[in-house]
Structure formats: C-alpha cells, structure tokens
User: Which sequence fits this backbone?
C-alpha cells in the first residue's frame, strides 16, 4: 500500500487530548482539501480517542493518512485489551461510540499486537 500522505500526533491520556485530536484532524483534512470529511472524521476520532483515554489510560498515537483516495484514521494505545462493541439499551448513557464509528465510516476494525498495543482504525471514502 502506497501512502499518499500521513500525519501523526502523540497525546496523553487526559480529556483535553480529545479536543486536541479533533483540532489535529480538522487542520490536516482542510490542508488536504477534504473539508467534506471534517464532520464525520472529527466525530469518529472523538469517539476513538475518548475510548483510549477512558479505557486504556495510556498515551496514544493518532494517525491520519490517505492512500488511493481512502482517508484512514488510527488510534494506537498501550492496552492490549480487545475492543468489544456494546449494544446499549435505549436509556443507557454510554456504549454508543463504536456504533457511531461504524455508521460514519466506510469500514473500521481493531488489532492487537504481541507487544501489548491495540489499534482501532476507521476508513472514509473519497466521495
């Protein structure tokens, strides 16, 4: 896979980092003339980084990249715990993040490596 462009930032596991991640995404999508993706990608990144802060509690790396017209975001944290999507009840106040990720992205998934790191990614089409 040939990467057309890529931007990476490392953030600490604090709530303020979620806002920094959204700003990072906005700046780089606009720089690459992808304003039509800003709202969806910012919301997905907000969900993924909130999960990293709340569940991993470790610094995390956010990568925004493009390859062949597909925009890709990835959040890599220091937790090897697998991602487990939930099915919240109507009155639940949490548990919808990955449902949002799935509905806004073209595809998403997660991987864990043998070193104890987890990555959660989502991709967005060109149109």
Assistant:
């Amino acid at each position: 896979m040939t990467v057309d462009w890529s931007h990476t930032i490392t953030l600490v596991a604090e709530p303020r980092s979620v806002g920094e991640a959204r700003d990072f995404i906005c700046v780089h999508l606009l720089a690459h003339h992808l304003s039509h993706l800003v709202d969806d990608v910012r919301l997905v990144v907000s969900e993924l980084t909130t999960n990293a802060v709340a569940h991993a509690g470790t610094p995390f790396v956010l990568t925004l990249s493009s390859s062949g017209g597909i925009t890709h975001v990835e959040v890599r944290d220091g937790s090897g715990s697998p991602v487990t999507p939930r099915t919240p009840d109507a009155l639940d106040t949490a548990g919808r993040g990955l449902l949002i990720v799935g509905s806004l992205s073209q595809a998403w998934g997660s991987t864990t490596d043998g070193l104890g790191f987890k990555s959660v990614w989502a991709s967005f089409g060109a149109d």
